[in-house]
Design a protein that fits this description.
Number of domains: 1
Order of helices and strands: HHHHHHHHHHHHHHHHHHHHH
Strand content: under 5%
Helix content: over 70%
Number of helices: 21
Structural class: mainly alpha
Length: about 425
């Protein structure tokens, strides 16, 4: 490790420790590195422009952010929740099942765990805590846990970022996330059913079956969005980036014209908030591009791959080691930073060990999502605390069982790669 890189890391961790935004900390650390190396500081700007210019797929990120914001602002979320309540709300702990199923459906539209938690999460928590049906901490915990499914089932913003740093097919990554996402949903519903019977949560009044066709018809246009997205990508009609534009346009037409739930001032506010969110992500991406240049200059990925090759470590041991590292770092870093800065260090070693990069990518994204609900950082816990006012202590007290079952699901995905790879292979993947 050179003196310049050591100073770079000290600047990065020092600024992060005093609360500086991670993007600014990375930019300053990069400038420190370039300054000590005596390289032109304009190189930082060149790396950002070149990286963004060569990565058309990054355009999908702001488009998915806009689509999620429009769906949250309109009545689409409420209609989806009504449909889910009619289908699975009749069982003990039914609203917990509704929470998970709604996240599975909503994840096919937003690609963002935070959008899921802040959108339908606020609504479903209100339904669960009304008249003391569920403890507030439990309602918040299952909402945070189910929101982690959002970036696993396509579309997925973290998978777009992983495709950027690994040069892996985003289409096959999206396909690889479908079965793992459904598996995570099934494990959460099984845990919810067990807890509901153990604590004797109240039964909800079942929705009459006669009303089900009307409720389904009401939600049907919203339910079509995942179908349109998947057909567009895998039917060869659109690229993933174009599919993101289709998602945003469809959400706008649905909320503004079909459901008539969106006004011009409301649309302006959505676009403004989406621009801010996209700019925040863009700053991290830009900073990561410079940081990745620095890491490559120091030959760290090659050195790490050589070191692991010398250890004669097995692919399974490597995957478990990476999972542990990302889980620990996910407690203090957000998923975007992990995928853009930390994960590229492991990709050359994964190639050397013959690990499939689609399998590796899905495992990494699932791992990062579990980090979103793991204290002390757990950004989803803070998001739900902010939008509902439920104390963090109550949420953290209930979250541990959900973390445990999600870690169990992650272990199964590591041990059985076919859970990830079976669907991509049906569509011609030969990785």
């Amino acid at each position: 490790m050179s003196i310049a890189f050591f100073a770079c890391l000290m600047a990065l961790f020092g600024l992060a420790a005093i609360g500086a935004p991670i993007a600014y900390a990375m930019l300053v650390a990069a400038i420190v590195y370039l300054g000590i190396k005596g390289q032109d500081l304009g190189l930082a700007g060149e790396q950002i422009i070149q990286g963004l210019y060569d990565s058309f797929i990054i355009l999908a990120v702001p488009l998915f952010i806009v689509a999620a914001a429009i769906m949250n602002a309109g009545t689409i979320s409420e209609r989806l929740l009504g449909f889910c309540a009619a289908v699975v709300g009749r069982f003990r702990g039914g609203l917990g099942h509704v929470n998970v199923v709604a996240s599975l459906i909503f994840s096919g539209m937003s690609g963002s765990a935070v959008a899921d938690a802040a959108g339908i999460g606020k609504i479903i928590i209100g339904m669960m805590t009304k008249d003391g049906r569920f403890p507030a901490g439990y309602a918040a915990a299952i909402t945070a846990a189910s929101a982690t499914i959002g970036p696993i089932i396509p579309p997925s913003i973290p998978m777009v970022l992983y495709a950027l740093v690994s040069d892996t097919s985003i289409g096959y990554l999206f396909l690889g996330g479908i079965l793992p996402g459904l598996f995570m949903g099934a494990t959460l519903m099984a845990l919810n059913a067990w807890i509901a019977h153990k604590r004797q949560f109240a039964l909800e009044a079942p929705v009459p079956l006669a009303r089900l066709p009307k409720i389904t018809a009401n939600a049907f246009p919203a339910l079509l969005m995942p179908v349109i997205l998947l057909y567009g990508i895998y039917g060869g009609v659109t690229t993933p980036t174009e599919a993101a534009a289709v998602a945003a346009a469809y959400a706008l037409i649905l909320a503004g014209l079909f459901y008539r739930a969106l006004s011009w001032p409301g649309l302006y506010g959505i676009l403004l908030d989406s621009a801010r969110a996209s700019a925040a992500v863009g700053l991290v991406i830009g900073a990561a591009l410079i940081f990745n240049y620095i890491v490559a200059s120091e030959n760290i990925p090659r050195a790490l791959a050589f070191y692991l090759d010398g250890l004669d470590i097995s692919p399974l041991a490597f995957l478990l080691l990476v999972a542990l590292v990302i889980l620990l770092m996910g407690c203090i870093l957000d998923a975007t930073t992990l995928i853009l800065v930390i994960v590229p260090l492991f990709i050359p070693a994964a190639r050397v060990l013959g690990i499939d990069l689609v399998h590796f990518g899905v495992v990494v994204v699932v791992n990062c999502m579990i980090g979103l609900i793991t204290p002390p950082y757990g950004i989803l816990l803070f998001v739900i605390n902010a939008v509902t006012g439920i104390p963090l202590r109550a949420i953290i007290g209930e979250i541990w069982l959900f973390i445990a079952v999600l870690l169990g699901a992650l272990l199964v995905m590591i041990l059985l790669p076919e859970i990830v790879l079976w669907l991509p292979r049906q569509f011609g993947y030969r990785g």
